[in-house]
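Thread: "does anyone have the structure for this chain?"

Original post by V.I.:
We have the sequence but no experimental structure in hand. Need at least a predicted one for the grant figures.
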Amino acid sequence: MSIINSDDKNTNWQFNVLKGLQSLSNLLTTLSNKINPVVPIEITPVIRVEENTPSLLNEAVKSITFKSIGTGPAGISFDGGNSFQSLTNGLEVTMVAGPVNNFYAAGKFAWNTTHSVYPGAKLMVTYNK
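Reply from O.Q.:
Generated one for you, tokens below.
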């Protein structure tokens, strides 16, 4: 598309408008970075293998993965152990809190690999705190 002045002649006006828009875009990007700077956070990965025990995770986590590695299902909870879902062996569930600085609250996740409740249960739990 061409911008034409009132005399039907192309001028440097179009180039100047584009330069101005680019300057405005650069300014907005700079201001955005100053207002909402992206600050790296330290993440610590943890790997646990759980067998024949119930557990509640009392740490805030960025993400968590449950993988059933036993011969039977394991119980996992997303409400602090109030209710459990059965995770059959070989299946994996991952939860990610989202963009920068979002975490799941401490006490949100629990699991149960007690053999009297879940025979053959063994669970690999990995999370980032």
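V.I.: this helps a lot. Residues 68 and 90 are 5 Å apart (CA to CA).
O.Q.: and The longest strand covers residues 45-51.
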